[in-house]
């Protein structure tokens, strides 16, 4: 008998919201501790992800 709870919509939404808040805290903390990060490449050099549900860049190199 399986005693593990299944991932329902409510637990999935809770996990997604928690991850979103964690990222906000991490990025906010990094920007406060490392002032002035700037992209180290031009927009033309960025590779964008367009093959997933979430749109974004594959990698973003920064300099400060």
Structure report:
- It contains one helix and four strands; from the N terminus they run αββββ.
- The radius of gyration is 17 Å and the shape is flat.
- The strands form two sheets. Strands 1-4 form a two-stranded antiparallel sheet. The protein has a two-stranded antiparallel sheet with strand order 2-3.
- The chain has one helix spanning 9-33, and strands at residues 38-39, 48-49, 56-57, 62-63.
- The chain has one domain (9-63).
- 39% of the residues lie in helices and 12% in strands.
- With 64 residues, it is of the alpha+beta class.
Estimate the mean pLDDT confidence.
81
Strand adjacency order, main sheet: 1-4
Count the beta strands: 4
What is the radius of gyration computed over CA atoms, rounded to a whole number of angstroms? 17 Å
How many domains comprise the coordinates?
1
How can the largest sheet be summarized? Answer: 2 strands, antiparallel
Give the DSSP E fraction (strand runs of 2 or more residues): 5-15%
Number of helical stretches of at least 4 residues: 1
The shape is flat
- The succession of helices and strands, N to C, reads HEEEE
SS-based class: alpha+beta
Low-confidence stretches: none
Instruction: Give the helix level as a range of percent.
Output: 25-40%
First-residue to last-residue Cα separation:
55 Å
What attributes characterize this protein structure?
two-stranded antiparallel ribbon; alpha+beta; 64 residues; 12% strand
